[in-house]
Amino acid sequence: MMLTERTGLIVWVNDLKPAKNLERFGTIHYISKKMHYVVLYIHAAKLEETLKHMQRLPYVKKVEPSYRNEIKTEYSSNVPDKTRFYSL
Predict the structure, then answer these.
(1) Contact yes or no for 16/31 (Cβ under 8 A)
(2) 11, 21, 78, 80: least CB-packed within 10 angstroms?
(3) R_g of the chain computed on alpha carbons
(4) How buried is 6 (Cβ within 10 angstroms: 0-12 exposed, 13-18 middle, 19+ buried)?
(5) How far apart (Å, rounded) are the C-alpha atoms in residues 87 and 51?
(6) 6-68 has which CATH code?
(7) How far apart (Å, rounded) are the C-alpha atoms in residues 54 and 52?
(8) Do residues 43 and 9 lie in contact, with contact meaning Cβ atoms separated by under 8 Å?
């Protein structure tokens, strides 16, 4: 099985009822009922054409890329371990 490269989008919507139709563009990960946004994962290769289609939809206010894949998730600890210092 080969994994496809995916990218996340945050889609701000006016109405949540038609927002469920965004599933035809990709996989809906989360819908915020309070703040009216949808987190959506799509194929990275289809990003440009998907953005153009989504921005034309009447219930879409704004589409933003998710910066989750740009955040560093590998951490290194250069601080010495102080557990022996505090033990009795």
Answers:
(1) yes
(2) 78
(3) 19
(4) middle
(5) 56
(6) 3.30.70.80
(7) 6
(8) no
